[in-house]
Write a structure and sequence with these properties.
The structure is a single chain. The longest helix has 18 residues. The protein folds into 2 domains: about 140 residues, Hotdog Thioesterase (Thiol Ester Dehydrase, Chain A); about 110 residues, Hotdog Thioesterase (Thiol Ester Dehydrase, Chain A, Roll), CATH 3.10.129. By secondary structure, the protein is of the alpha+beta class. It is globular. Strands 1, 2, 3, 4, 5, 6, 7, 8, 9, 10 and 11 form an 11-stranded antiparallel sheet that branches.
């Protein structure tokens, strides 16, 4: 059996869409994590395979490209494979297809192997080499680029929150999809009603943990037909930047 490409089938649920019938980007993010774990398990390097060794796969960077919007109850196909690996990151592509086999979203994730005790990056290349690499499968998506934190200014928005219990995952830190939810919760609902997310890039720099105090710093870059937002998520307890992101929206 060819395990190079892992495939899953799914029906869009009500809990995965917003009040305007559009799928949440963090719903896509959850699928990306779950199918990556299932694929890794086929090669003996999934969560439970690595747990006793004190190491784990973690997402360092991610890019979403969204081309269309599925509806609730739609049947979709999710496919994933490892595209390429550089000195630090192993890049995985995940595509979401509608029931006409059209791609409505593509996601490229950059993964690292992390020592879960020392909280240090391990040798990702050793584990990434286990997977077949398929760079020849061309997907309309670029590697998620490095995003530096911006320097906060007077007109930027600043929102404080504390990491709640519901945000913490099996690794004892905030699950990466929660940062997208928090970012969306800071945006104007009327803006979200009238705009569609087309591109989202996130860099995960440092983990955050239960009850830590965070500050979301958001800068708007509004154009005539497009709108962009930059976001820093600052860990007040450690005085470090946990996450940076850039989101691009298009008017409906």
């Amino acid at each position: 059996m060819n395990h190079s490409i892992f495939c899953n089938h799914h029906t869009i649920k009500f809990c995965e869409i917003d009040s305007h019938g559009r799928i949440f980007p963090w719903s896509l993010g959850i699928h990306v994590q779950e199918i990556a774990e299932a694929h890794a398990s086929q090669f003996g390097v999934g969560y439970y395979d690595l747990k006793d060794k004190g190491i784990a796969w973690m997402i360092s960077r991610i890019r979403f490209k969204i081309f269309d919007v599925p509806k609730v109850k739609d049947s979709i196909t999710i496919e994933t494979w490892v595209s390429h690996t550089d000195r630090i990151l192993s890049y995985r592509d995940t595509v979401f297809k509608d029931n006409f086999n059209n791609i409505f979203a593509s996601v490229r994730t950059g993964w690292v192997i992390v020592d879960t005790v020392k909280r240090e990056i391990g040798n990702t290349q050793d584990f990434a080499s286990i997977f077949p690499h398929l760079p020849e499968l061309k997907v309309n998506i670029a590697d998620p680029e490095r995003i530096k934190p911006f320097k906060i200014e007077e007109n930027d928005s600043r929102i404080s929150l504390k990491v709640p219990y519901s945000a913490v995952d099996v690794f004892g830190h905030t699950n990466n999809t929660k940062y997208i939810e928090w970012f969306y919760d800071c945006l104007d609902p009327l803006f979200l009603e009238n705009h569609l997310l087309t591109d989202l890039v996130i860099n995960y720099h440092h983990e955050t943990k239960l009850n830590e105090q965070l500050e979301l710093q958001i800068r708007e870059e509004i154009g005539r037909t497009e709108a962009g937002f930059r976001c820093n998520i600052i860990n007040i307890n450690t005085q470090s930047c946990a996450t940076t992101m850039f989101a691009r929206f298009q008017k409906r």
